[in-house]
Amino acid sequence: MYVQNNVKSQFLNLLVARVKELTVGDPRRKDVFVGPLINQAAVERFVKAADDAKQSGGRIVLGGDVINHGDLTRGYYVEPTVITDLPGNHRLFKEELFIPLLVVDEIITLDQAMRKANDTDYGLTAGIFSEDPQEIQRFMDGIQFGVAYANRRGGATTGAWPGAQTFVGWKGSGGTGRGIGGPHYLLNFIREQSQTIVSE
User: Fold this and answer.
1) Quick one: how many helices (H) and strands (E) in the chain?
2) Residue 40 placed within a domain
3) Rounded CA gap, 86 and 101, in Å?
4) CB–CB of 150/140 below 8 Å?
5) What is the pTM of this model?
6) Confidence (pLDDT) at 150
7) Residue 141 belongs to what domain range?
8) pLDDT tens-digit readout, 75-132
9) Half-sphere exposure of residue 124: CA atoms within 13 angstroms, side-chain side
10) How far apart (Å, rounded) are the C-alpha atoms in residues 151 and 134?
11) Are 76 and 166 in the same domain?
């Protein structure tokens, strides 16, 4: 996540307060927002990421630990984690880890944010919060992700609205750049045949 430098401190305070409210536990319970990770390998990926962040000079603002007490001793539960102050080229900005870990960096301009966001092998979803229509259009024209949102409060960079959007990833997040549910996706179901007949 890239946050404008003049609001980063205030934003982090609000973010941490909101993440603290998230309930970790059995995902079958209605009040639970964060369920377990998929397996032990994911837990190890989480531990390695948190350790790597600390060793690289990052600051874990919230979380960073495996949960193994109370009802959560059985399962792969970890704390939702927020990290800041990492070097801008750190691997945690570029890798898809599939764990509840968010790295926050500060930027000065939208162009700087897009350069950083686009500097990854992946390109599934991206989002922006802005009150400036021209800034939003620059983001939409310049971001290299298959699904892009502006001012979407319920999951700024997650998923797609079924029936309303195609769901598509670019770069390492999608092999063809054609979205599920879109008109170009139908081409994936057409079989092409090249025929050659040589007569002497």
Assistant:
1) 4, 8
2) yes
3) 13
4) yes
5) 0.84
6) 92
7) 121-200
8) 999 999 999 999 989 999 999 899 999 999 999 999 999 999 999 999 888 999 999 9
9) 11
10) 14
11) no
